[in-house]
Design goal:
The protein folds into 3 domains: 153 residues, 3-Layer(aba) Sandwich (Rossmann fold), CATH 3.40.50; 52 residues, Helicase, Ruva Protein, domain 3 (Orthogonal Bundle); 90 residues, Zinc Finger, Delta Prime, domain 3. It is built from 14 helices and 5 strands. The model has no long low-confidence stretch (mean pLDDT 89). The two termini are 35 Å apart. By secondary structure, it is α/β, with parallel strands linked by helices. The structure holds adenosine-5'-diphosphate and magnesium ion (MG). The site of adenosine-5'-diphosphate has 21 residues, from α1, α3 and α9.
């Protein structure tokens, strides 16, 4: 996977995000005084990558031994976070050059309000030996008392120039022969500043050995499918607001037809963990029918996501 192969090993190699890099370099001058950090921004903008680079900068070669990476939405609730942080923080051995341990908590905006309140206490109780890097898509999903304990870094969707430069560097290392610059413009168009997707698309499009407009087009349908799948996963996970925002982005910005959205959504269900599959499918079928009847598409898809996100509570 090129996204892994070309994951930046140095802050200088992180594309775009200039202000963030500058602020972090300043903070890393005084490692022992690092505050808790909050990284917010869209997918594929470099948040996790940067969090790991901060860990490496502070903890050096042994960073893995002193860093706990958790995914707030994978782990079953705050209790797991508490237990693991507690166990991890208990070894408060003071090694040379290790000012504290680090916890990187990805998707922290997926935690419930109660979970976040508990997290705040965990942060306080362990503040002497542990620093947190909270990673999320929307800082608005983080309760204010947590936000106020962190230095906040807002990652931006990457601009076309940064993405193109990064993709060209990869293309060169992979000895690709792109059929003109328009290829990169098309990749950007299809991925809208999400560098993870852009690199995946570059790799998929050049799998045949050629990198042309046609090869990009033939795989960017797959990129759209995976985005629809992400939206449905979001809804099924109970995150109605974020699913709705991303659905609207897909239909308005990408211009994908609403019925295609439903078709891809149906395909996506097969590979997702759904609390009640039969019900999920009948919800899709119902809205497919309404769209054929000529109901207002965006409203209907929104209502559909609302219904899908309610399945979660029922399945629990
Ligand atoms: N700003 C960036 N600079 C360089 N590569 C990036 C950047 N953002 C994303 N990538 C690429 O995409 C992959 C995923 O990035 P990641 O840091 O996990 O994004 P995020 O956490 O914001 O979703 C990385 O392995 C890297 O290859
Ligand atoms: Mg990430």
């Amino acid at each position: 996977m090129w996204v892994e192969k070309y994951r930046p090993l140095d802050l200088d190699d992180v594309a775009g995000q200039d202000t963030i890099k500058q602020r972090l370099r300043a903070l890393l001058q005084k490692k022992a005084q690092l505050p808790h950090l909050l990284f917010a921004g869209p997918p594929g903008s470099g948040k996790t990558t940067t969090a790991v680079l901060v860990a490496k900068a502070i903890l050096g070669d042994q960073w893995k031994d002193y860093t706990l990476s958790l995914n707030a939405s994978d782990e079953r609730g705050i209790d797991v976070v508490r237990e693991r942080v507690k166990t991890f923080a208990r070894y408060s051995d003071r090694r040379e050059g290790i000012p504290f341990r680090l916890v990187i908590l990805d998707e922290s905006d997926e935690m419930t309000g109660d979970g976040q309140t508990a997290l705040r206490r965990i942060m306080e109780e362990n503040s002497e030996h542990t620093r947190f890097i909270l990673v999320c898509n929307y800082s608005s999903g983080i309760i204010e008392p947590l936000q106020s304990r962190c230095a906040i870094f807002r990652f931006q969707r990457l601009d076309e120039a940064s993405v193109t430069e990064h993709l060209k560097a990869i293309a060169k290392k992979e000895k690709l022969k792109p059929a003109g610059d328009s290829v990169f413009a098309e990749i950007y168009e299809a991925t809208q500043g999400d560098l993870r997707q852009a690199i995946n698309l570059l790799q998929a499009a050049s799998a045949s050995g050629e990198l042309t407009s046609d090869s990009v087009k033939s795989v960017s349908g797959a990129a759209v499918k995976s985005r629809v799948s992400d939206v449905i996963a979001d809804a099924i996970g109970g995150n109605f607001e974020s699913a709705r925002t991303r659905m609207i982005e897909l239909t308005r910005v990408y211009g994908i037809p609403e019925r295609d959205f439903l078709k891809y959504a149906n395909e996506a269900l097969g590979s997702l963990k759904v609390p009640d599959m039969a019900k999920a499918i009948s919800i899709l079928a119902e809205y497919d029918y309404r769209l054929v009847q000529g109901a207002q598409p965006e409203l209907q898809l929104t209502a559909m996501l609302a219904q899908l996100s309610e399945l979660k509570g029922e399945g629990d």
